[in-house]
Amino acid sequence: MSNRYLEPIVQALGNALHQPILIAALLVGVVLLCLRLVPKGKRGELAVTAAKKLTVDGKVYRDLNNVTLATPTGTTQIDHVIVSRQGIFVIETKNMAGWIFGSENQPRWTQRMGSGATHQFQNPLHQNARHVRVLKEFLGVPDEALHSIVVFIGEAELKSPLPDNVMTGGFIPYIKAETSEVFTPDEVEDIVQRLQAGRMAPGRKTDKAHLGSLAQRHGRKQA
């Protein structure tokens, strides 16, 4: 589903906070109904987008969603980028259930469902490392200005010791805990403008092109 469908849902969640309680309850009910119409693969991204809209000051933390950038080896698509004076937070979301097993260096992690069925998937830390690398090269910023975060949305339970930047929730406090400033307000604005100007136009056409790039580069759907 294109961002043009997701954004009104997120906006409705934000508006609900500023309405009388009965109207707010009605708005939230409509939002939850709309959420059921969102493809499963997009629900995690929507949940993170909604959380940012509801809990993060948009004047301090500038957020961009579904940022697709062209590279010499194909495209890369980043679920969420938050730009602030404290740095650039690069967020990879995973909408999964079951138990999650893996380690920081394993190339593939394992999802185990209650039925006993297992599924292996690319280490999201490695996946997001590519996103971070592409942003670093595109923006020309130092390593210390970039922060990788992996967020599992849904009923997933992490069963292995993992770094603090892999979580099933609480990513907003994690972001706000970073207090060292690396950019000025003008630099933040410049980075946001460069990302907006340099990204591929969000939408179904870009998503299709990205999937084609992945198939050509990996033979499977990775980012």
Automatic annotation (TrEMBL):
This is NERD domain-containing protein. InterPro entries: NERD. Residues 198-223 are annotated as: Disordered. Pfam families: NERD. The chain crosses the membrane at residues 20-38. Keywords: Membrane, Transmembrane, Transmembrane helix. Residues 40-158 form the NERD domain.
